[in-house]
Amino acid sequence: MKQTQQQLRKDMSAIWQAGVAGVLPDRLIRDNVRLEHDLLIIGDVEYPLDGIDHITVIGGGKASGAMAEAVEEVLQPLVARGKISGWINVPDDCVQTLRAIHLHGARPAGVNEPTESGVWGTEQMLGRLESRKKSPRELVMALMSGGGSALMPAPLMQEHGMGVTLGQKLAVTRFLSAAGATINEINTVRKQLSAIKGGGLKRHCSGMTLVSLILSDVIGDPLDVIASGPTVENQTTATDAVNVLEKYQMTAHPEYAATGKTILKFLQDKQNDKQDQSAAHLPDDGGNRGQSVRNLIIGNNVTAVDAAGMEAEKRGYSHAMIAATQPEGLAEDVGLHLVHVAQKMQQEHGPDCLISGGEPVVKLVAAEKRGLGGRNQQLVLAALSKFLENGLPCRFGFLSGGTDGEDGPTDAAGAFFDNEILEKVRAGGLDPMDYLARNDAYHFFEQVSGLLKTGPTGTNVCDLRVIVVEKTD
Questions:
Q1: What is the CA radius of gyration of the chain?
Q2: How far does the chain reach from its first CA to its final CA, in angstroms?
Q3: Neighbour count for residue 38 (Cβ, 10 Å)
Q4: Element housing 437 (H / E)
Q5: Which of 17, 233, 275, 440 is a Cys-bridge partner for 279, taking CB atoms 3.0 to 4.6 Å apart?
Q6: Please, what CATH class does the domain formed by 5-17+301-469 belong to?
Q7: pLDDT at 441
Q8: C-alpha 374 chain-centroid distance
Q9: Residue 296, number of CB atoms within 10 A of its CB
Q10: What is the DSSP letter of 454?
């Protein structure tokens, strides 16, 4: 049966929303945490309640507030008995009042950068751990999700008083992001500049049982990369961080040269002070002998792709699914590849729905030339511009959105296009290449009603893309 353009758009949106619903924290926490009689069961491990005096809940991330709310609901009997307390750093628009766990607004909504409020909140979190430290009957439950790196800032200070400021860390992150560095490369540097990343939080839990529940926003789920690995020993070194900064030539960039030189000097001092260690150089227990630590992935990009696939099947689509297993390249390249696939799908017999997951990067132009957008909007605009070249009608819908509801410093989760959008573009005489070159996809799609706006979803597992095709007999 031939679908209308309206039905294609409705199906495309519903499939994407189902993917997001499949990784909502409430569902994932209930699947992994439960009380049964005198046992607390997390994953497949049982913790006898008579061996736990108290549970401290800590963490940070875009989804961590919703995770904390779900933990309180699942462990309500323990909350009622006063056996749970905690502190979670979240974006301002995710703050709500819970019974036992404090949610602290650590950054403004839509601004994925560390703030002084985040530094203060992290200090409060670590203070709570210090007050309960070295109690073998204390269980620490860390709730980690994407965005944790920016929400739990703790600039590293060395014993002799020298260290890194929040402003310098922020400048490094901005530079690497604009230069097109991967999340792995960015985290390699950030972990060397932080007192909490790269296993720092784990070390603050010395002497206590630590269980980390992780909602992964990194392709391939590397534990040492998600939220910069606060509960996992660092696998990279100061030398690796130096190599990243030299690869992108930070000291050669006029705007960042001074900061780059300072950071390089700091990292070189770490090398010279023989602090250049990764987990490979540490004892098997990571230097915390006797500490019980578990890191459990409770949801990821694959989970979202699978959930979206189930919805596509319900709607009668013959679907194909793919989730990236390695960091993706530039958003423009991913968009061009996907639109090529979409064109083939509308021309050939085979799947009429493609669901893919991943996380590309965007290389930003100079700030004075830059518009507004995010990687999903840039990806969709690149795809639209390529398809627009052939002048043919579009018999498919194309959507890409961040599962957290955020795409760059905008109020959109991403963007989409179909034949109706293309007709608006042609009628308005818009030049997508101009907007693409200026990283200004937001203002392009704003003019043709092609922005995907959801608000914060309460979860975060990278990006989800949906293509639905109208088949002709």
A1: 23
A2: 9
A3: 10
A4: helix 432-437
A5: 233
A6: alpha beta
A7: 98
A8: 14
A9: 15
A10: -
Tokens 């696998």 found at: 235
| Domain range list for the chain | 5-17+301-469, 32-299
| Cα distance between residue 65 and residue 98, in whole Å | 9
Token output for 142: 């860390």
**Residue 404, helix vs strand vs coil:** coil
- Distance, in Å, from the CA atom of 355 to the CA atom of 322, rounded to the nearest integer, reads 6
Q: Which 3-state string (H, E, C) describes 232-289? A: CCCCCCHHHHHHHHHHCCHHHCCCCHHHHHHHHHHHHHHHHCCCCCCHHHCCCCCCCC
Tens-digit pLDDT profile for residues 347-368: 888 899 999 999 999 989 988 9
Determine the topology of domain 32-299 in CATH.
Rossmann fold (3.40.50)
Element (H, E) at 467: strand 463-469
C-alpha distances (whole Å) from 466 to each of 150, 393, 408 are: 28, 19, 19
Give burial (CB, 10 Å; 0-12/13-18/19+) of 96.
exposed
Beta strands in 270-390, from DSSP E residues, in sequence order: 293-299, 319-323, 353-358
Answer for the pair 101, 85: CB distance below 8 angstroms, yes or no: yes
Side chain identity, residue 285: D
Could you read off the pLDDT of 255-293 as tens digits, one per residue?
Answer: 999 999 999 999 988 887 755 554 433 333 344 444 689
**Residues recorded for the chain:** 473
- 104-131 average pLDDT score: 92
Query: Which has the closest alpha carbon to 205: 157, 284, 152, 142?
Result: 142
